[in-house]
Amino acid sequence: MKVLAAMSGGVDSAVATARAVDAGHDVTGVHLALSRAPEAVRAGARGCCTVEDSRDARRAADVLGIPFYIWDLAEQFREEVIDDFVSEYAAGRTPNPCLRCNEKIKFAAVLDRARALGFDAVVTGHHAKLEQDADGTPRLARSVDDAKDQSYVLAVLTAEQLRYAMFPLGDITKDEVRREAAERGLLVADKPDSHDICFISNGDTMGFLRTQLGDNPGDIVDADTGQVVGAHQGAYAYTIGQRKGLRLANPVNDGKPRYVLDIEPVTNRVTVGTADRLGITTVTAQRPVWTSGSAPAFPWRGTVQLRAHGGIASAVAEIDANGQLVVGLGEPLKGIAAGQAIVLYDDDQVVGSATISATAA
User: Fold this and answer.
1) Is 93 part of any domain?
2) From the candidates 48, 49, 98, 198, which is the catalytic residue?
3) How far apart are the first and last CA of the chain?
4) Which of 48, 49, 98, 101 is catalytic?
5) In terms of residue numbers, what domain contains 248?
6) pLDDT digit string, tens, across residues 214-272
7) N or C: the chain end with fewer CB closer than 10 Å?
8) Residue 261 labelled as part of a binding site
9) Do residues 334 and 241 lie in contact, with contact meaning Cβ atoms separated by under 8 Å?
10) Domain count of the fold of the chain
11) Do 307 and 355 have their domain in common?
């Protein structure tokens, strides 16, 4: 097959590309330029999408002996990922920009362009398994490396997108990826993983949001007493379950720490309360996506994951009269916020996903 390899400049995408070459495919490498000023984006262990990364990707392509190009998708990235990130926080929700990037950039903009150019598939270095049934139905599942599994952030992809995707690393661990890279002479073998949010150069998410949304002072209110216990400069600076950084001026004298329970953008109020009020047992989610192309039979029973790294519980799901996914959790989970994704699993296989719109105890 003629395949396009998305090469980020990291070790995972380099080895995934190498495996595609070994499989006999006609491989072309492409690095996505997602920043308007990549020289200003942090480098090293916390970096992503930098000038350094593009050079590392080009060197890996040279070692593998494949054509290499850079595609400028900075404008689309700004509109689909960064602007979405800011507007979601402004609306009191907590987005996942990596998930949105997979959905809108790597498997929408890139895949569309790749298909238009005659490529049969797009290869990435995501840690997840992907197989197809005889009829072409895709089956997305967890990686063998639980610590690095990325099936959660890929669960937003449609069956049509998955039919043209390849994830060659689903059957090996990250340590094995690094060993394989070293054996192949790839200089990124020991390159640290990227962390945090690639488009926030200093890692200060709240500072970034403040430059985008400005100050908007409001009250922090205790859920039990209704007492104003503090003030904030913008409700967008808080996430559900947050404990640190509240700076409560008038803490309630019961000796218990407070956590963010609710963010109300209309009234600009942040509500805090004790840890026992954080647990939720019911999740309502919108815009379900079924990775096989069709919904499961309802009521559905399995496990769900509500955060990229954790938030796993047994669950029962139904579709309500409005087409929303309503999920009852087998045990309470904490720190779950609107805007996050809920992903349904049958054992290790992804069934589908939806965007959380509401939660209840």
Assistant:
1) yes
2) 198
3) 50
4) 101
5) 215-277
6) 999 999 999 988 889 999 999 988 889 999 888 888 777 777 889 999 999 888 999 99
7) C
8) no
9) yes
10) 3
11) yes
Question: Would you state the pLDDT for residue 48?
Answer: 58
Cα–Cα distance measured from residue 259 to residue 242, given in angstroms and rounded to the nearest whole number:
5
Give 350's strand partners. 345
pLDDT in tens, 276-315: 899 999 999 999 999 999 999 999 999 999 988 888 999 9
Q: Give the pLDDT band of residue 36 (cuts 50, 70, 90).
A: low
How many whole angstroms separate alpha carbon 327 and alpha carbon 123? 33
Give the per-residue pLDDT at 37. Answer: 57
Tokens representing residue 308 in the block: 């990229």
Q: Does 198 participate in catalysis according to the annotation?
A: yes
Is residue 341 annotated as involved in ligand binding? no
Domain-embedded: residue 65:
yes
Q: Is 144 helix (H, G, I), strand (E, B) or coil?
A: coil
Any known ligand binding at 11?
yes
Q: Is residue 204 part of an annotated ligand binding site?
A: no
Query: Is 48 part of the annotated catalytic residue set?
Result: no
Q: Say yes or no: 176 and 259 in one domain.
A: no
Residues 220 and 85 in one domain: no
Q: For the domain that residue 252 is a member of, what is the CATH number? A: 2.30.30
Would 207 be classed as within a structural domain? no
Contact predicate 215/232, CB 8 Å: no
142-196 residue pLDDT tens = 999 999 999 999 999 999 999 999 999 999 999 999 999 999 999 999 998 876 6
- 44 and 94 part of one domain: yes
Identity of the amino acid at 132: Q
Q: Which residue has the tokens 């990325």?
A: 150
Q: Is residue 201 part of a domain?
A: no
Given the structure tokens 């690094």, which residue do they identify? 178
**Annotation-wise, does 194 bind a ligand?**
no
Domain CATH number, residue 336:
2.40.30.10
